[in-house]
Prior knowledge:
The complex is a heterodimer of chains A (50) and B (355). Chain A has 50 residues and is mostly helical. Chain A has 1 helix and 1 strand, in the order E-H. The longest helix of chain A is centred in the middle third of the chain and has 32 residues, at 16-47. Chain B has one domain (3-348): Cytochrome C Oxidase, Chain A. Helices cover 76% and strands 1% of the residues of chain B. Chain B is built from 12 helices and 1 strand. In chain B, helix 4 (92-111) runs antiparallel to helix 5 (115-141), helix 6 runs antiparallel to helix 7 and helix 10 packs antiparallel against helix 12. The radius of gyration of chain B is 20 Å and the shape is globular. The two termini of chain B are 15 Å apart. Strand 1 (9-11) of chain A pairs antiparallel with strand 1 (352-354) of chain B, so a sheet runs across the interface.
Amino acid sequence: MIVEQHGEERPLLRGWHWRVLGWAVAIFLLGSIGYAIIVLIVGLLESGAL
Amino acid sequence: MTLPHKRVIYALFSLTLLLLLVMAACDLLASTRMLPGSVVPEPLSLVATTLRDVGLLLGLLAGGIYIALNSDPRPPTDNLLKIVWFHSRRDGFLRIWSIGLLLVIGTSLLAWQSSLAWWLRLHVGYVLMALPIAFWLMLRVSNVQRPWVMRGLRSMSIMLIIAGVVLVLAQVTSLSLLLIWVPMAYGIFAAHSYRALSDRNPTQTLAAHWLAIGVLLFILMSVLGSVLGLASVQPYLVDTFWLGLQSDLAYYALVAWVLALLNQGTAELRQHNRRVTGFVPLWTISAGIFGGGFVLALMSIVQIYGLHVFDVPAETIEQSLLPLAFLWVSSKLLIAIGLGIYGIQFQRRRVMARE
């Protein structure tokens, strides 16, 4: 049986606060990954391992 | 499930994941303190452990609420708290979950003051909240029947409560042979869950895989915990990472189960029998957890021999740990990257609603 559905599909969670929260967490995570990679490379270079 | 209920539960899932992502980032930053040249302040590790507790608790709360929303019969109310209260007195899963929740609340009030309360929350409170979620997920991903699951949940709850209490008491008193119960209980649980994990239904999500990783981590934790609980071993644990490794293994096992719940719950909310997150985050996070655990164990062995056997000064030991510290930070990096990919996939396959 085909059931006709009205309306358009939208994300269940929407709104500027979810966007801001998502972007803030993404930037913080990427920043921490970048910082850790830099500290790792600097540490390896200083120790003479590379 | 009504649309507002779906929205609340999906918001809880999303907030849990966001908290776990921030926790992974803080944990990664805090781990770089072991490397030369890092300018990360010391309190960040405390922030990371607090975020881990909050994220885990939120995930376990979401699990209980999700089970309540999927339980029959539906009470004549739309109030979420009333629905959870209604089922916590009737449903076998939620009865044990609510006992765990009460224990977590009670021990959290004391955890700031007493380390025993902190360990009790980890080994009994969180486990009692997580176990019903794990067994409920087994119903979703395998062909096992509800009576088998309920029997297993009841018996395993009792066994793991005793194991948790033994682990906590071992911190203050000598239990010697009683400690053998801990790996035995977790071993019985692993053997029990094998039946569900090896007899899969056509569900496509990776919930079973995350559950299996949690079970493996619990087995490792139980073996390590029973050895570290021995009175003859405890003097050697001072100023080493062993107890940190034990708590890390238990926490990551619980986090793996929360990630299983997010997988299964989101797939069901999407009404698509498809994976929400794939194998890349699964293997990346697992490699980070198991690899990091191995590195932490190696560091602890160096500390034991240096500090307690050969009486080497602490500064010299710190220098000798540096090569392992690079591996330790790399493992945290893998966990952060894996959780980041998990987050991207979770967002890409987000739940849509027709309005």
